[in-house]
Design goal:
Blueprint (H helix, E strand, L loop, with lengths): L16 E3 L10 E2 L10 E10 L1 H10 L3 H15 L11 E10 L12 E4 L8 E3 L12 E10 L5 E3 L6 H9 L2 H11 L7 E5 L4 H12 L4 E6 L2 H8 L13 E4 L5 H10 L4 E6 L7 H6 L1 E9 L6 H10 L5 E4 L7 H11 L1 H17 L1
Helix pairs in contact: 4-5, 4-10, 10-11
């Protein structure tokens, strides 16, 4: 394939926007996903997609039959030139092998590199060529064939040789959460801050709990909705000689603001830092009420309503700083991968999820 004229390119991918004109690729309704490269682009042969949790939950709810969910995903990609759930607005990320690198690409990639993209599928030009024939429609990870395009300002990481590809993909999908958690906890005015992780037994939640511990948290409260998830957290205590991921476990519905905030208080809260890692809507109020005045709430979920968060905090006179976890913090991939390498409890949680997914799909 030949590179397109340099004057048409944009490191932000603006030249790939078909409609509406003048918006960034993430906000676009439709992208040009053709495989011909502009000089600073990279084309990737796609091997596996990883749908973000909020998007996958919504798709499974609307399309419970595997055949219909496959058709829905294929329809989104064919219509939009990218995988962006029209309900949640989110996408996910992918792994693959670099096929071709434009002569002006600043990403430092070479043909043959095995990579994971660290930018959302909601802004990545994508073509699927195998009809998702190998995907059962029951898991977030989607084996497939096709190609994707990375821009000059895109982010990608070479897959580590010491971790299985499925594990690395699962970790890199949520690597922004532990990195931002580490930054916020490290910067807390309290020398030993209390940290609450809502959704602590999940992928981003378990990594965030480990990152909070590494950053100097004095007490970590893990909030989960089910007794089975509480048992998962309880089993991490003293695993391989390591402390548990959390110090206190709360079983509560995070959508019930009074119940969850009271349970957090009883477990040693309110928190100096609260990290929301669940993929269901309606958790804003409990996170705000469970956070101390002057504390920080990090919303790391595509299911968050930022209108509800802002107006809800105002309505209860909560003096809290609220941060949007945007998925990118410098060094986020390495930090997350190192946590999985060094924390057996975290790796165990990820591996169980992958094993369960392999059994279903």
């Amino acid at each position: 394939m030949t590179a397109a004229p340099a004057r048409l390119g944009s490191p932000l991918g603006l030249h790939r926007v078909l409609e509406p004109p003048g918006v960034l690729p993430q906000a676009a309704w439709r992208l040009d996903a053709r495989g011909d490269l502009w000089p600073d682009e990279v084309r990737v042969a796609v091997h596996r997609l990883n749908l973000d949790a909020a998007s996958f939950r919504q798709l499974r709810s609307e399309y419970p039959d595997p055949a219909t969910i496959r058709s829905a995903v294929l329809g989104i990609v064919a219509e939009r030139g990218k995988l962006q759930n029209p309900v949640t607005g989110s996408g996910g990320m992918l792994t693959g092998v670099v096929e071709e690198v434009g002569p002006d690409s600043p990403l430092g990639l070479r043909a043959g590199d095995r990579i994971a993209t660290l930018v959302s599928l909601s802004l990545t030009p994508l073509v699927i060529t195998d009809g998702l024939a190998r995907w059962g429609g029951t898991t977030e990870q989607v084996p497939c064939d096709g190609h994707a395009i990375l821009f000059g300002r895109s982010i990608a990481a070479r897959l580590p040789a010491d971790l299985p590809a499925a594990l690395a993909l699962a970790v890199l999908d949520v690597c922004g959460a532990p990195a931002l958690t580490h930054r916020v906890v490290s910067a807390s005015p309290s020398s030993r801050p209390v940290v609450t992780i809502i959704g602590a037994a999940g992928k981003s939640g378990s990594l965030s709990a480990a990152a909070a511990r590494q950053a100097g948290a004095g007490r970590i409260i893990g909030v989960v909705p089910l007794a089975a998830e509480a048992a998962t957290l309880r089993a991490t205590c003293d695993t391989g000689g390591h402390a548990g991921l959390v110090d206190e476990i709360v079983v509560a519905d995070a959508r019930d603001p009074l119940a969850v905030s009271a349970a957090i208080a009883a477990a040693g809260g309110p928190a100096d830092v609260t990290v929301v890692c669940v993929d269901v809507p309606g958790c804003e109020g409990g996170a705000i009420l469970g956070t101390a005045q002057g504390g920080t709430v990090v919303f790391f979920s595509m299911a968050t309503s930022f209108t509800a968060a802002a107006l809800g905090a105002e309505g209860v006179a909560a003096d809290v700083t609220m941060l949007v976890g945007n998925g990118y913090v410098p060094g986020h991939a390495q930090l997350a991968l190192d946590l999985v390498r060094t924390q057996p409890a975290v790796r165990g949680i990820f591996q169980r999820r992958i094993d369960e997914s392999d059994g279903r799909d």
